[in-house]
Amino acid sequence: MAPGMNYLKSTESDGYRxxxxxxxxxxxxxxxxxxxxxxxxxxxxxxxxxxxSENNCxxxxxxxxxxxxxxxxxxxxxxxxxxxxxxxxVPGDVKNMDEVLERxxxxxxxxxxxxxxxxxxxxGPGYRAVLLRQDLDRDAVGLISARRYDLPGVRIDxxxxxxxxxxxxxxxxxxxxxxxxxxxxxxxxxxxxxGGDFVGKTGVERVYDGVLRxxxxxRQVEVNARGQVIRILQTVPAKPGASLYLAMDRDxxxxxxxxxxxxxxxxxxxxxxxxxxxxxxxxxSFDQNxxxxxxxxxxxxxxxxxxxxxMENKVIQGLYPPASTYKMISAIAALEEGxxxxxxxxxxxxxxxxxxxxxxxxxxxxxxxxxxKEALERSCDxxxxxxxxxxxxxxxxxxxxxxGFGRRTGVDLDHEEAGLxxxxxxxxxxxxxxxxxxxxxxxxxxxxxxxxxCMQAAVMIAALGNGGTLYRPQVVHEIRxxxxxxLRPFTPEVTGRLPVEEAHLELVRSALRDVVSSRSGTARRIxxxxxxxxxxxxxxxxxxxxxxxxETSSRPGFEPHAWFVAFAPYEKPRIAVAVIVExxxxxxxxxxxxxxxxxRFYLEKQMADDKALE
Length: 614
Hints:
Layout: H1 3-44, H2 46-55, E1 57-63, E2 70-71, E3 77-89, H3 97-108, H4 112-122, E4 130-133, H5 138-146, E5 154-164, H6 171-174, E6 177-179, H7 182-185, E7 198-200, H8 203-207, H9 209-213, E8 217-223, E9 229-236, E10 243-246, H10 250-259, E11 265-270, E12 277-283, H11 289-292, H12 297-304, H13 327-336, E13 346-348, E14 351-354, E15 357-360, E16 368-370, H14 372-378, H15 381-388, H16 393-402, H17 424-431, H18 437-443, H19 454-466, E17 469-471, E18 476-480, E19 486-488, E20 494-497, H20 502-517, E21 534-540, E22 561-568, E23 575-581, H21 587-613
Parallel strand pairs: 2-10
Antiparallel strand pairs: 1-8, 2-3, 3-4, 3-5, 6-7, 8-9, 10-18, 11-12, 11-23, 13-16, 14-15, 17-20, 18-19, 21-22, 22-23
InterPro entries: Beta-lactam/transpept, Beta-lactam/transpept-like, PBP_dimer, PBP_dimer_sf, PCN-bd_Tpept, Penicillin-binding_protein_2
Pfam families: PBP_dimer (PF03717), Transpeptidase (PF00905)
Protein name: Penicillin-binding protein 2
């Protein structure tokens, strides 16, 4: 081999050895660092880590935020939070579950089987806390705290619990909280919720749940082998929810509920100039605190089996024939379509024959000759039967929908019903049978297939009062941050206008004033010049009477529903009211006095407030 080649091989071998030695020393350096770290942990920190590995571990606990409060329009507190104590257990920390549950049963007076059932239904990963009981009484909390060393895995969490300051007041408007369901947990907007959390189920508690809820916090804690907290390592505080200021006036709400006590039905009062809901009553009501503490099965059965349906919000979910309160829409349709004018007169003898059927007026002796204004004032059915023969059901339906019937008002509450404004096409789709002319005679006086909610009636009468503007009813006046700043102010929302020219609208409004102020008006008994009420009575038949001798409607449960809608004062309305009393019979004798008292209370209160500001 040539000398030059030996030299090259020797050079390559030296370079290889140098690289190998460099790699060796780098590896040796890292090995020494690792050895030093292990030596430090073993010699200097060994005792501490042995204690942690044998007895302790680090866990994360969530911190529930304080739910936003709810006030009335004047800043008076309606819904608060109070401290409550929940009993939880971490299964992974318990060696003998039956023994621990029996001890808990002895201390709390709650059957151990109830704890077992709860544990089985909610069991998850071994170290996830399971809620055994909500809202423990203070005696049980004291006993468990004193025996905590005999109860491995058991802990008591202090949480804010909802407190409704006036049980039952505005229950359907305010709503209530309930434990989150599995279906609710699966919704994307509820990603921060956990089993056992409480969420809004109805009313503004549900609609504004995301605003009221706030943001969950958490803390890192060290626990011993029995699952008991040794120390708190780190905390991320929860962010409280925003507060709601309702449009409701608490005093008016209380007064309205007193007026409806013992009755079944609904009342809603609105500001006709902006759509704010001043009071909303669905009777009978219920105590929301039953749900806040966790309602018992017997309490729930009593509510859902009550024939008067206390859980139904009759203001937006109760569907009733609007009866004669619908005649204002019929009058507007007749005037705008040109089938009658202010001077058109028809004679009422007490009934009219159409085809092979006789359609009666509510007044058997009849009203004689009337024009449109007088027909509204006296609520003459026969006059509108004549109109129905000149006006198609589809044109009538168009005006009904334009006035807000047959569609949701858009109130910021859940599960609002749309009601029904029938048309010829609707009947054919539903029954396969063509529309009959006689059915228009029923529909034009608010009977037949017509169905409306109390809220729809309130929006309509408010529009008549304010000059024709339809507002979306709103129950929340304002949303404020926890620190006090306004998050969302109230803004009126116009949803449409009554399709009527000014002269025709004034004719109808004037007739409504005469309903109350005229000697022949159907609501004359509530006349008070100081209130200057304009309104309309209605008596909705539950079942059709086939003859004058048919006494079906006088049997219990078949009496007609009583309606009254009104606004006041006539010139510059400040309040609009709709009242429906189920099986109350006469709108003039039952519903009208309730509405008058609501109006009187509110206007007198407004006058007192105005004087206080002077």
